[in-house]
DNA sequence: CGGTATCCACATTGATACTG
DNA sequence: CAGTATCAATGTGGATACCG
């Protein structure tokens, strides 16, 4: 999920669509906790629309370093680790 | 515990003595799993003695990068994070 | 000292149904 | 679409007692 956010995904449905197959209740609870710890914030998904999108805060973006370190470790030391995650464009 | 190993601690009792206060059964089970995944290996603690010590493998040492990334994140973003961990001397 | 063996408490997960 | 509400299943952790 954090990975999804780092990849630029931001909508509830995007997270649901991820290959893990997370149930809505779990996703919802996790988002609450991330909001609580200010790792993500909510922003309007579309201008004027009623739906919300989730964006990483600076604090959340900083987690990228950890995720990348884990990814690298996996690629080097664990067979079968796939490298889907590429650092996001800072556009 | 990985942190302890990175700091050069290697004995069962050393891990037990850590401030977390881990019970023997949990510690034992975790060491088994780390052995299984070849993150640690067993070596004789004293030459000739019957006791064992645990040492990180290369794979295990590589986890240091992740631990440090987490430590750094904590120091920057979470108040009250203490910085006990300093990278080990490569002697 | 370095573990095993029990047993219980609690947190996390997951499936599923329902709602504004 | 974006959740909330239940409930059962599983995992993980912790206390404690015991053993070679």
Q: What is the secondary structure topology, with strand pairs?
A:
Two copies of one chain form a homodimer.
Chain A: H1 2-6, H2 12-17, H3 24-36, E1 40-44, E2 52-56, H4 58-77
Antiparallel strand pairs in A: 1-2
Chain A binds a DNA duplex (20 and 20 nucleotides) through residues 11-13, 16, 21-29, 31, 50-52.
Number of extended strands of chain A? 2
Secondary-structure element series of chain A: HHHEEH
- Most extensive interface, chain pair and sizes: A-B, 12 and 12 residues
Query: What proportion of the residues of chain A is helical, as a percent range?
Result: 40-55%
**Percent strand of chain A:** 5-15%
The number of distinct helices of chain A, counting runs of at least 4 residues, comes to 4
Model regions low in confidence, pLDDT < 50 over at least 5 residues of chain A: none
What oligomerization state is this entry in?
A: homodimer
Structural class of chain A: mainly alpha
Coarse shape of chain A: globular
- Average pLDDT over all residues of chain A: 91
Main beta-sheet strand count, sense and barrel state of chain A? 2 strands, antiparallel
Strand order of the largest sheet of chain A: 1-2
Radius of gyration based on Cα positions of chain A? 14 Å
Termini of chain A, distance in Å?
A: 21 Å
